[in-house]
Amino acid sequence: MSIPETPNDPSHRRSRLHRFEFRSAVVRSQQRIRATNPT
Hints:
Elements: H1 10-36
């Protein structure tokens, strides 16, 4: 994870925030599937 931080670039911050929220949503969906269908 060697992504240069550019706090003055709102589009870059928005992109990273969206990626983080997307990962969180994927993790929650995987946890829900794992909880309802344990293999």
